[in-house]
Amino acid sequence: MDVEERLADVRRKIAAAEDEAGRASGSVTLVAVSKTFEADAIRPVIESGQRVFGENRVQESEGKWPELKAETPGLELHLIGPLQSNKAANAVALFDVIETIDREKIARAIADEMKRQGRTVRLYVQVNIGMEPQKAGIKPKETVAFVRFCREELGLTIEGLMCIPPAEGNPGPYFALLAKLAAQCGVERLSMGMSGDFETAIAFGATSVRVGSAIFGHR
Asked: How far apart are CA 110 and CA 58, in angstroms?
């Protein structure tokens, strides 16, 4: 299959999973993860009507997305990789959504940059849902307090939570925990599910799924 066919296949699977879960058609946003792919590989996906994309690194994104955004108005770019505070200014300038707020230093840097640039970026808190030492994210038990801090101390609007469950085992319980934390935080959006488990994530309430290899293939 070419990239357009793979995109169509993923969209069909999302629609089927929405239906299976008794959810409204179109209630799940597909974030096409284009990390490591050049602009020429991304353009056919844009031409197929995809408008929401995810990238892991600020510097890599700066090399391709300003041009792509200029070519096609209305594209929405999500940062889904770890953010260093020294890249906060660049991230606020380029991205529409930052899904990886996970500590006070980053939250403060983003708040300061949004004020300085006069630009509002939509924000998610990343939760280290499996408590894995190699992964970024705030601990589950600290999530509610951290979201409250972001809102009350920094004046940030946190619209959702994001997680990457452990690669081994059933992701369902981790997705269920993120949904529970979101309810406790009073946020409505859940960014969870990737190429191998997005249908399960939809069953547990994902409002967006981050799918890369199932669309773009492997490098």
From this structure: 14
Cβ atoms within 10 Å, residue 141: 9
Backbone angles phi, psi at 143, to 5 degrees: -65, -50
- 206 close to 192: Cβ distance less than 8 angstroms: yes
CB atoms within 10 A of CB 123: 21
Phi then psi dihedrals of residue 192, to 5 deg:
-155, 145
Q: What pLDDT sits at residue 147?
A: 98
Beta strands (DSSP E) in the chain are 29-33, 52-55, 76-79, 97-101, 122-127, 158-163, 189-191, 208-211
CA distances (Å), origin 57, targets 43, 53, 60, 71: 19, 13, 5, 21
Pairing of strands 52-55, 29-33: parallel
CB 126 within 8 A of CB 137: yes
Residue 52 has pLDDT above 80, yes or no: yes
Residues 6+ apart with CB under 8 A from 67: 39
- What's the pLDDT at 219? 72
Alpha carbon distances (Å) from 15 to 23, 28, 29, 50, 198: 9, 8, 11, 15, 11
Range 31-35 average pLDDT: 97
